[in-house]
Amino acid sequence: MAFEDLLEDPVIQKYLHELVGPKGMPVAAAPPDGEVTDEELAEELDLELNDVRRALFILYENDLASYRRLRDEDSGWLTYLWTFEYDNIPENLESEMHRLHDALEDRREYERNHEFYLCEICSIRFEFGEAMDFGFECPECGSPLDSMDNDRLVNAMDDRLDALEDELNIDAGA
C-alpha cells in the first residue's frame, strides 16, 4: 500500500498522531520518497529540529523509519539519512490490537474478581479491602460507601473483546 493511501486512512492517522503527537505529526504525515536528513525535514516543514528528531526517533522505535549514518571525511560529523517504512503500519496496528485485547481481558478478570464500593458524592471507587479500612466511609467527604454493581462495565468489556476477537480472528474458546 502506498504512503498516500495509508495516510488517508483515519485509523492510521490517529495511530501516527498517538505515536508522535501534534508537533511530530507533520513529520509523520509528510514522508518523503527516498532518504532525507532531519535538517532537511525541519527546513522543509518549518519545524524545530528537536521536534523533527523526536518524531523520527519515535517512528524508528516503532519500526516505521530507519536510518543510515554517513561520516563526513573532513569534519568527522555524522549525518543521518532517514527512510520511512510505512509498510509496517498494518502489522503494528494488529500488534496494538492484540495488546489491547490482552489488557482488556486482564481488566475484565480484575473487575469480575473484586468487589467495589463507591462514594456517590465524590465518585471515588474503592476495593472491598480499602472500603473496609475506611470503615465504609469516604475518606474525602465522610459519606457512606455503597456497594457498586459493575456488571454494565464487565458487559461492555465483553462486547469490546468480542469485537476485537472477530477483527483479529481469535477463537474465544482457545
SSE layout:
Elements: H1 3-8, H2 10-29, E1 36-37, H3 38-45, H4 49-61, E2 65-71, E3 78-84, H5 89-112, E4 116-119, E5 124-127, H6 128-133, E6 146-148, H7 151-168
Antiparallel strand pairs: 1-3, 2-3, 4-5, 4-6
Features:
174 residues; alpha+beta; Arc Repressor Mutant, subunit A; 2 domains; three-stranded antiparallel beta sheet; 6 strands; TFE; transcription; DNA binding; transcription regulation; Transcription factor E
With strands numbered from the N-terminus, the spatial order across the biggest sheet is 1-3-2
Radius of gyration: 24 Å
CATH topology of the largest domain: Arc Repressor Mutant, subunit A
CATH architecture of the largest domain: Orthogonal Bundle
The CATH superfamily of the largest domain is known as Winged helix-like DNA-binding domain superfamily/Winged helix DNA-binding domain
Describe this structure as you would to a colleague:
The protein is α+β, with helices and mostly antiparallel strands and 174 residues long. It has 2 domains: 4-84, Arc Repressor Mutant, subunit A (Orthogonal Bundle); 90-168, no CATH class. The chain contains 7 helices and 6 strands. Strands 1-3-2 form a 3-stranded antiparallel β-sheet. Helix 3 (38-45) crosses helix 4 (49-61). The radius of gyration is 24 Å and the shape is elongated. The two termini are 32 Å apart.
Summed up:
The chain is an alpha+beta fold and 174 residues long.
